[in-house]
Amino acid sequence: MFSPALIDFCAQHPQALDHLAVIPDRCWTDPGPGAGGRFKPLSALVAMIARVAACRPLVMQPIGLSICSAEIFDAAYVGQPGALNPARACALGQ
Questions:
Q1: What pLDDT score was predicted for residue 12?
Q2: At what angle do helices 43-53 and 5-12 cross, to 10 degrees?
Q3: N or C end: fewer C-beta atoms under 10 angstroms in the chain?
Q4: CA–CA dist 39, 46 (Å, integer)
């Protein structure tokens, strides 16, 4: 669960955190496979993640990768969580 109040707190006080665990699926809007303009970032969340990741460990748990189906494989989604942290200074949760 995420409270919007945490965006400001985390951005302003990253030193108060030991680490930040993120569900990257919550950091963009996605109209789904085949739709134009997929993965539009939510800028306030992405900026907060970048600020915290500069000084604290970051862990991502992409829910969409956890509940994949053998029938549908969304190749575009697979690379998307890493786009939040191009420096790769994070771990992907399993």
A1: 87
A2: 30
A3: N
A4: 12
Specify the pLDDT at position 18: 93
Specify the amino acid at residue 87.
A
Rounded CA-CA distance 7/35 in Å is: 29
Cβ neighbour number for residue 86 with a 10 Å cutoff: 8
Which domain, by its residues, includes 57? Answer: 5-92
Domain total in the chain: 1
C-alpha span between 84 and 79 (Å, rounded): 10
Per DSSP, the three-state class of 22 is strand
**pLDDT tens by residue, 31-87:** 988 888 888 988 888 888 888 888 888 888 877 666 666 667 777 777 777 776 655
Structure tokens at 50: 């970048």
pLDDT at 7 over 80: yes
| Cα–Cα distance measured from residue 45 to residue 24, given in angstroms and rounded to the nearest whole number | 10
